[in-house]
Backbone:
């Protein structure tokens, strides 16, 4: 989730349990601790482009690390802010731990994947029930914690927690409706998907991206889930087959190892870029939900030596044409005809 939302939710939980005279301190400490786990983005390497993918949302986001992270944040924040907000060390640690605890669970609600159970498991948990940026979720929380600080009453934050749980629960309902539409689309094409996922698009809970896997391809489609479920057919991309697609690649080379690492990060949703046969893309993400237009991927070099890493790339095409396509799908103004509709 974006840092602002993490800070807002991190502030909401400690504010909800704070005494009136401690609300400001609880809010500030909780907000800062709620953002702290994302400091793992600083773990990078100038020679290994995929290192940050392995460590982002890893140990700092583990449920088992919450007491440690909360303690560290509490000690640091108390030294900096404790006297200013008249907090004793115990309260600083409690408020910090509560704020820290919200971070990983909220991240797991998005689509990126969070290692909640590290070091026992490296599985990337993604419940796919809210976008990584969603003002409809964040702004009401922000209003509630502002009112709580203004009135010095924890009841506003408690209402905010109810709002957060209700919104995330609605996301689960909408995700399940979108997945049902995805299975229906696949059946209409006489496909039997190996895997199928519905992912929320930017800042809403009614336009979803459907990604499903067959033996040879990944298919992506857009679904609008309102009082009826409408869907717009999308594109497909050829699934990665390392042996067939890169016959020149040495089995024990660094590039081969990097493909395996990127496969883990992408949960297996790897495809060959339609525009470049040497690029491997993560088929799960795009700005326009029924497009194969990756946000990131890796490029292989046939002339690389055995020790050379792949090249990691990102693409953020948010130009006018792409924005117009996205908003057309979001509000039902897309020029492409809706391919079908199913009442739920």
Residues:
């Amino acid at each position: 989730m974006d840092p602002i939302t993490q800070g807002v939710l991190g502030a909401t939980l400690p504010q909800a349990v704070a005494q009136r005279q401690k609300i400001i301190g609880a809010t500030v400490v909780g907000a800062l601790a709620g953002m702290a786990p994302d400091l793992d983005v600083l773990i990078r390497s100038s020679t290994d482009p995929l290192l940050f993918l392995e460590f982002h949302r890893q140990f700092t986001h583990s449920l088992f690390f919450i007491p440690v992270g909360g303690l560290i944040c509490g000690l640091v924040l108390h030294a900096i802010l404790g006297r200013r907000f008249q907090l004793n060390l115990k309260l600083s640690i409690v408020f910090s731990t509560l704020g820290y605890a919200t971070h990983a669970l909220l991240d797991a609600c998005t689509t990126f994947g969070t290692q909640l159970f590290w070091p026992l498991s490296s599985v990337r948990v993604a419940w796919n029930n809210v976008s990584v940026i969603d003002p409809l979720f964040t702004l009401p929380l922000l209003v509630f914690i502002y009112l709580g600080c203004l009135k010095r009453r924890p009841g506003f934050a408690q209402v905010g927690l109810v709002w957060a749980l209700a919104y995330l629960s609605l996301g689960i309902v909408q995700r399940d409706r979108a997945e049902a539409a995805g299975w229906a689309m696949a059946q209409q094409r006489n496909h039997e998907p190996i895997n199928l996922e519905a992912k929320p698009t930017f800042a809403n809970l009614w336009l979803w991206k459907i990604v499903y896997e067959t033996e040879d391809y990944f298919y992506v489609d857009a679904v609008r889930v309102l009082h009826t479920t409408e869907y717009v057919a999308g594109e497909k991309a050829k699934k990665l087959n390392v042996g067939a697609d890169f016959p020149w690649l040495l089995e024990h080379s660094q590039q081969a190892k990097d493909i395996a690492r990127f496969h883990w990060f992408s949960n297996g949703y790897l495809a060959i870029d339609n525009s470049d046969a040497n690029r491997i893309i993560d088929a799960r993400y795009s700005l326009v939900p029924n497009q194969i237009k990756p946000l990131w991927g890796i490029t292989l070099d046939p002339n690389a030596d055995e020790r050379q890493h792949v090249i990691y790339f990102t693409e953020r095409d948010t130009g006018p044409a792409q924005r117009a396509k996205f908003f057309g799908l979001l509000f039902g103004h897309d020029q492409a005809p809706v391919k079908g509709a199913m009442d739920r």
Q: What stands out?
A: The radius of gyration is 22 Å. The chain has ten helices and ten strands. Residues 335-344 have pLDDT under 50 and may be disordered.
